[in-house]
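TA notes. Do not distribute before section.
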Amino acid sequence: ENVDGLRESAESGDALFGTMDTWITWNLTGQHVTDVTNASRTMLMDLETLDWDDGLLADFDIPRSMLPRIVPSSDPQTWGKTRADGAFGAAIPVCGMLGDQQAATVGQTCFAMGEAKNTYGTGCFLILNTGEKIQHSQNGLLTTVAYKFADAPAVYALEGSVAIAGALVQWLRDNLQIIDTAPEVESLAASVADNGGIYFVPAFSGLYAPYWKDDARGAIVGMTRYVTKAHFARATLEAVAYQSREVIEAMNKDSGVELKALKVDGGMIENQLLMQFQSDILGVEVIRPKIAETTALGAAYAAGLAVGFWASLDDLRKNWQIAHTWKPQMDAATRASLYKGWLKAVTRTFDWVE
């Protein structure tokens, strides 16, 4: 509509569209493809057929001819090879492709129904494996494809996102200047025994899963003259864990499966206090792998399976190793009381923007 001749080119297949993975694969191999996990994020793919949905294409007036072919996340058929005289200096088959969080899920070997991982970065991203059956959420979560390996059936997942996690530590550093560097938040938080009665709900741009309230705004509640900057630091870390628990509880309700352990990755997993509190407030073990870069590892796993470097999912499980496990140390009554306070604090952020 805005570029002369572009629609005609799209309809004839001369103008192509795709996600970032499509562009990279095109430059590596000349093939126009995307995998099921990335295609699912376009809102144009049917989760059941794993093909572009004609009804949605019609609604958005998008020509099918411009879209990439949808392929498995790990594909022994490969999509071509890199040029021998190119950047890699060899003809390497390109055969593994996953979206960011799905790659981390594979990298954490969450291959069994009920296994879950949480990535702690600027925000938090939780994915729960729901098996080969599509589980439509009734509790504010996203239903998505976790992965598809070769000719095996697709595996689905529930995903929940927390908008503000590590970004809250950055806010303490940059806006309030309570700390000079992000790692300092742990020692400052550890200098007090608890949060001093305060809760920090970082709804800076609204609340994500499971609430989806764009009119919510951040709040710090429960303050007294006793509260210090150390309590602010502790409440900041605890907020990450509380938000993650809310998403996990929504997953438990949707799936009917109680979480037994949580695999974790991302920059914030180096924070011992946070990880221990996460285990405490969930009441389950929190497990950090030896290889923390699980997104890259998952992409490598997908490619390695396709070319036979690893023969099976069991081989991947054997390759994945635990670096540290945090076990719950909090009694059930304290856990329930703290979480009740959090849920009360969250309600104070509702309906702020009119």
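Switch to the second chain here.
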Amino acid sequence: MAEIKTLQEIANQAIAMPLQKVAVVCGDDPDTIEAIEKACKDNIVQPIMVGNKKATIELAKSLNIDHSLFEYVDETGRSQAARTAVKLIKEGEAQLIMKGFVGTDDYARAILDKESGLMKSKSIMSHVTIVEVESYPKLLFASDVAIIPQPDLNQKALMISYATEMANLMGIKTPKVAILSATEKVKEKMQSTVDAALLSKMAERDQIKNCIVDGPLAMDIAINPKCLAGKKIKSPVEAQADILIFPNIEAGNIFYKSMIHLGKAKIAAIITGAQCPGVLVSRTDSEEIKYYSIALAVYVSAKRLELGND
């Protein structure tokens, strides 16, 4: 398949895919309900609004949104709404889950629950963001900007695998992965540089598959050929990274919000490692970001089913 270059291409393909149901946790938020309405009208998803039914309908009416477009499961508590949405997935009543106006902790806790959650065996919950920004010639995948505070070596290896799978689904056969730090040199007192060097060697020995991995790399030489040439460093990533792996959530989250508010980037983001894709963006993110994230979740879910990777 041809490599996907824009988030709109993902949305266009999602429109043509089989309709899936999404359990929306606490959709009583203007940007969430507007994104859901658009995705519903584009025939991307059929929403099940799990949360305060009265508040959701009142909000829809105030925004001139036809509330009859949605199905409802009435739950007044936000944490209980998250658990109910997970139950709908487990029972086959929905195929996707989306975070609305509910705290990330409540949303994640319901998915991670060892008895009733959605995690696969030997997996971790992580997060992949796709960035489309005018200053870069292709989509840029980033992990982890939202879930894992201080990923260890094994978690970083899984983060690479999850992001690589997503890039593969977008037509990128062998993505180039930059393991980021503040320097290109391995320094014993900077754990991120040690992890990066180990991950590079693991990929070289085929312990991490289907991608090219190099690190430690500073951000500039991961994405800018002039900077790479200026530092006279040889890297198989060649300053053309498809995937950025951040050393911790602080670095990743700052990148994410800088791309949105300073870079004016288009963004889509989902959780990885669970039985189904889950939309997870900030409560303050725009309707556009939430719409593209819904489309991404649908696209990934449908592609996995198509390839037998679910």
